[in-house]
Every structure is written in C-alpha cells, then in structure tokens.
TrEMBL record:
One of its GO terms (molecular function) is transaminase activity. Belongs to the DegT/DnrJ/EryC1 family. This is DegT/DnrJ/EryC1/StrS aminotransferase family protein. Keywords: Aminotransferase, Pyridoxal phosphate, Transferase. Pfam families: DegT_DnrJ_EryC1. It comes from Phormidium yuhuli AB48. InterPro entries: DegT/StrS_aminotransferase (IPR000653), PyrdxlP-dep_Trfase (IPR015424), PyrdxlP-dep_Trfase_major (IPR015421), PyrdxlP-dep_Trfase_small (IPR015422). Coiled coil: none annotated. PANTHER family: 3-OXO-GLUCOSE-6-PHOSPHATE:GLUTAMATE AMINOTRANSFERASE, TRANSAMINASE.
Length: 381
C-alpha cells in the first residue's frame, strides 16, 4: 500500500465552516444578545431569502425536513384516506412525512440508470383515491419537471416536491422547489445547505398554503391563542436561521464545486464501465447539485461491500443510500409490501455505493478514490 494515509472523509463540514467561522460566531452572538429565539428576525430573513433563491413567493421555516413534508402536505389539503405516490428508493423520512399527514403512502419503483422515481410506474399506481405525487429529487438531481406536471395535470393531482437533497438544483431551466404546488427542504447538517442541528422549510407560490403552514407549525394558531387548525410545534429556531443566513450566500458556489467534482468522478470512472462500475446517470447537466455521488457496482466477481471495505482500508469513507428500500423496512410492513415488489430498488440497494462528495473535495482526492477502486478490481483477475 502507498504511504498516503490522509483519510478522505465522506463529508467535510469542518473545512466548509472554517472560512466563515467568524461570521457564524458573530451571527450566533447577535441572536443570543437580541434574545428573539422563537420565530425571530433571522428566521423571517431566511424565509424570504431562501424562497427567493428557489424562485417562489413564500418560505415557512419548520423544525426539520420530515415536518416540512407532513405540514406542507396537510396545508395542500392532503389528509386521511388520500393516497400519495412516493418512490420506494428514498430516505424513510419521505414516507414518514406522508404518514404524519395521515395520508397513505403508495410506493413505486425507480429508474435503474438514475435511481429516480419511475414515472411510468407512477401512472400505473394512480387510483381514484390518489391525491398527490411526491417526487424526491434524489442525490441532488431533479425528476423531470415537465413530465411531473404532465402527470399531475392530466390526472388532477397535487405535485409536492421532496427537495431535501436538491437545494438550488436545476433541470430544464427550472429550480427545485418551484416545480409543484409546494416543496419541502431539510437543513440537516450534511445537506447541501445545513444548520448546526435540525431545520427545514416549506416553499410555495400559493399564499393560502403558506398561511396554513405558518399556522400549523405554530400550534395551529393564525392568531395567538386562536387555534383554527390541529397544529403542532415545529418552528425553525432563530439560532438555526441565523446560521442559514450566513451560509445561504455561499450555496450556489458550493453546489458548483459539487457539480465539478461529479464531472471529475464521471470522467475518471468511465474506463471502469466494462468492469460493472457505473455512476448514476446525470440528466441535469450543470444543474445536478450532487448531494451524493452514487455509483452502481454490478460485477459478479466483486460485490459492493467488498469495494467499500477496500476503500475503508485506505482511509476512504463511503456510504449507502439506502441499504434497505422503504417497502422492506420492518416498521412499515403494514403498508402491505413484500420482497420482489420493487425489483429495481431492491437490486440497487445491494449494489449502490456513495463516494466521498463535498464542496472542496480536491481532484487529487477523487483520483485517489478512483485509483483505490481500480486497484481492488484489478486484483481480481
Ligand atoms: C434528509 C431527508 C429528509 C428529512 O429531513 P430531516 O430534516 O432529517 O427530517 C426527507 N427526505 C429526504 C429525501 C431526505 O434526504
């Protein structure tokens, strides 16, 4: 083995924050000084700025991305008995959000090349009870806005985006969060835009939806002590809002760096295609914001886990997004699915591997990751 032991982390928040540390400290100190901890000035500023960045009229900060889905769906009028179509290959929070809106998640398979929701499967899953389609812009790339709208319009369905992995991602000139009736984002620390804890937002062009989320997140009260809706307590903390205000101006640049890194990976990995290593296809070009860089390992002599172990030995961290598709998660057996229902998602769950990806990852780091993959594969023959 070579003598370069510097680990390559899966994500690197420390390097991201270091250049803006003084600004972050000052912003946090200002909130502590001002004391407007609940729905304070920084939250209002961030809601306006983030909605504007997405190209929509309203933003409503909430406690996390899961709540953004649940409260956003509720505000769009989704409720008991309503079927909401979601991909089986997503983070479980998508499903939890639907269930917390008291609606019924109806799962569909994904496309093997992109791992995004299969839109033909969406059309086949539509029933008289279907009220909404909930695409997930997975790994940082958007599901086709035009095709989504065609489906929603022709079947009279609400379109609600789970954009938790695609802050400012674009496709065909459209921005994540501006495609449907409303959209949910998460600011979990490792997302493309992250807080120092939990946070989320609902964005929408519909004033009524915005007003309803504003009430729902704040005990269902449009006016203090007047509880018009069965709401909850789910607000974006002012301390988190102020951190997001410092970070938001850097987001476009960070996304550009992720996209560059994605292109570099694509180029360096291309020669490994005949050994069964294929990156997820990028259908968004420069609009792909690579929350994750995911490859598929389809080689009868070498499975995904062997490759991830080999990388680990060289100090290279990887991830799997996700190892168990939603329909096979133990807690959700009562949804009525079983193994074999979504063959593409099931196959991917055994073959996908997420490589280190973060703004500031160097070409040299990426070369080392690809070199490590090559070395392991060539040892087989
Ligand atoms: C992170 C994530 C969420 C949930 O966000 P939280 O802030 O952790 O609640 C929802 N959907 C997807 C696709 C995510 O990646």
């Amino acid at each position: 083995m070579t003598s370069d032991p510097t680990p390559i982390p899966f994500v690197d928040l420390h390097s991201l924050h270091q250049p803006i540390q003084a600004e972050l400290d000052a912003a946090v100190a200002q909130v502590l000084e001002r004391g407007d901890f609940i729905l304070g000035q920084a939250v209002r500023e961030f809601e306006t700025a983030f909605a504007q960045a997405c190209g929509v009229a309203h933003g409503i900060g909430v406690a996390c991305g899961t709540d953004a889905i649940a409260l956003g769906l509720q505000a769009c009028g989704i409720g008991p008995g309503d079927e909401v179509i979601v991909p089986a290959n997503t983070f479980i929070a998508t499903v939890i959000g639907v269930l917390h809106a008291d609606a019924i998640p109806v799962l569909v398979d994904c496309d093997p090349q992109t791992a995004l929701m299969d839109l033909d499967a969406v059309e086949q899953a539509i029933t008289p009870r279907t009220r909404a389609v909930l695409p997930v812009h997975l790994y940082g790339q958007l599901v086709s806005p035009q095709k989504l709208r065609e489906i929603a319009t022709s079947h009279n369905l609400i379109l609600f985006e789970d954009a938790a992995q695609a802050h400012l991602g674009q496709r065909d000139g459209e921005t994540a969060g501006s495609v449907g009736m409303a959209a949910a984002f998460s600011f979990y620390p490792s997302k493309n835009l992250g807080t120092a804890g939990n946070g989320g937002i609902v964005v929408t062009n519909h004033a009524e939806v915005a007003e309803r989320v504003r009430s729902l997140r704040n005990y269902g009260a449009p006016k203090k002590y007047v509880h018009v809706y069965r709401g909850t307590n789910s607000r974006l903390d002012t301390l988190q809002g102020t951190i997001l205000n410092v970070k938001l101006p850097h987001l476009a640049h960070w996304n550009q760096q992720r996209n560059q890194a994605g292109q570099t990976y694509d180029r360096l990995l291309a020669p490994l295609a005949d050994q069964g290593i294929t990156p997820m296809r990028n259908d968004c070009g420069s609009g792909h914001v690579y929350h994750l860089y995911v490859i598929r390992v389809n080689n009868p002599q070498c499975d995904r886990d062997r490759l991830s172990n080999a990388l680990e030995k060289q100090g290279i961290q990887t991830g799997i997004h996700y190892p168990i598709p939603c329909h096979l998660q133990p807690a959700y057996r009562n949804l009525g699915y079983s193994a074999g229902d979504f063959p593409v998602s099931e196959a991917l769950s055994e073959q996908i591997l997420s490589l280190p990806m973060y703004p500031g990852i160097t070409d040299a780091d990426i070369e080392r990751v690809v070199y490590a993959l090559k070395t392991e594969l060539s040892a087989l023959t």
